[in-house]
């Protein structure tokens, strides 16, 4: 039954508002997109339907053509790893960038990683760091951890372990698991003044 209704959503047969309200139209489009993405995931994981990676790709192509940031980022991942499509790193970066410019927080991290590592694009650590910061400013906790990593290891910026710790701590306080482990490691391995209680708290996250 769930598959039937998500499939109808993809076919645009459930509901079509005639209201002139832009907010209602926006809400409708968001909900429709969620329904279509859920349908794609059902095909991807075989939830109530036989797995079909080709169908997954077709659905995401349809959404991407309409400018969906989530679909653009997902297709980029597929091109980057050769999942359901021929591997094409240039195409992957192009789609990551389109999604990132539309405000997708995950895509912004992916663009940053591409620039940082020189994957799919000419290596440019400065641009990579700028994209990490942009994602941070948009509220991405995971990117806060990335900035901490950059400072701790001298990637993209000058090495500054204390600054890295500060960024890790910011993310850790927002329940980011990896950052909580990193905070514990900072206390455990030295470089940061030991606080036994805090160390014990975050080391439990390792």
UniProtKB/TrEMBL annotation:
InterPro entries: Mitotic_Regulator, Sel1-like, TPR-like_helical_dom_sf. It comes from Diversispora epigaea. Transmembrane segments: none annotated. PANTHER family: ACTIVATOR OF C KINASE PROTEIN 1-RELATED (PTHR43628), CHITIN SYNTHASE REGULATORY FACTOR 2-RELATED (PTHR43628:SF1). SUPFAM superfamilies: HCP-like. This is HCP-like protein.
């Amino acid at each position: 039954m769930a598959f039937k209704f998500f499939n109808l959503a993809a076919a645009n047969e459930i509901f079509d508002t005639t209201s002139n309200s832009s907010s209602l139209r926006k809400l409708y489009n968001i909900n429709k997109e969620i329904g279509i993405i859920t349908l794609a995931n059902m095909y991807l994981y075989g939830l109530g339907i036989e797995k079909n990676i080709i169908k997954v790709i077709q659905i995401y192509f349809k959404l991407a053509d309409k400018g969906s940031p989530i679909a653009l980022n997902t297709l980029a991942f597929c091109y980057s790893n050769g999942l359901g499509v021929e591997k094409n790193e240039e195409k992957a970066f192009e789609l990551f960038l389109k999604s990132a410019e539309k405000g997708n927080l995950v895509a912004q991290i992916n663009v940053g990683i591409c620039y940082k590592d020189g994957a799919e694009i000419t290596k440019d650590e400065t641009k990579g760091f700028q994209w990490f910061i942009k994602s941070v400013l948009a509220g991405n906790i995971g990117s806060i951890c990335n900035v901490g990593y950059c400072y701790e290891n001298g990637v993209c910026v000058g090495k500054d372990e204390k600054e890295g710790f500060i960024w890790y701590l910011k993310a850790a306080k927002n329940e980011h698991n990896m950052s909580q482990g990193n905070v514990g490691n900072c206390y455990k391995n030295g470089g940061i003044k030991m606080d036994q209680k805090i160390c014990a708290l975050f080391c439990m996250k390792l």
